[in-house]
Amino acid sequence: QVQLVESGGGLVQAGGSLRLSCAVSGRTFSRYAFGWFRQAPGKEREFVAAISRSGSITKYAESVKGRFTMSRDNAKNTVYLQMSSLTPEDTAVYYCTKRPGGYGIEVHPREYDLWGQGTQVTVSS
């Protein structure tokens, strides 16, 4: 049974940095592409970043490009989201999610089949 558990969220001042982690249980980690989405109060869940199964391909939302970096460690079964130059507009609950086995990266949440519980990121001005 695959499970996703996010950590690393918190309160940070504008301009600061945070690194989110997503620990993935199970022995099939390398079969999956992963994504990060976020949802602010009153808004729809939006795509942030995605990474391919090998880690060689990443894709980012325009709003975070150049500030966020997604990576994965297949030996540790963990996916990361390094966030820098944070602004109050980045405040949201951040969710880690996986694609079905064998599929590539996507930007639509409906293409992902398993979600973590989310971790809150709050950026103060």
Quick structural gist:
Helix content is 0%, strand content 46%. The chain has 125 residues and is mainly β.
Range of helix content? under 10%
Distance between the termini: 41 Å
Largest sheet: 7 strands, mixed
Q: What kind of oligomer do you see?
A: single chain
Overall 3D geometry? Answer: globular
Structural class: mainly beta
Percent of residues in beta strands:
over 45%
Order of helices and strands: EEEEEEEEEEE
Poorly predicted runs:
none
Number of strands: 11
Structural Rg: 13 Å
Using brief descriptors, characterize the structure shown.
four-stranded antiparallel sheet; seven-stranded mixed sheet; 46% strand; 125 residues; mainly beta; 0% helix; globular; single chain
Provide a descriptive summary of the structure in words.
- This protein is mostly beta strands and 125 residues long.
- Helices cover 0% and strands 46% of the residues.
- The chain has no helices and eleven strands.
- The strands form two sheets. Strands 2, 4, 5, 6, 9, 10 and 11 form a seven-stranded mixed beta sheet that branches.
- It is globular, with a radius of gyration of 13 Å.
Give the topology:
Layout: E1 4-7, E2 10-13, E3 18-24, E4 34-39, E5 46-51, E6 58-60, E7 68-73, E8 78-83, E9 92-98, E10 114-115, E11 119-124
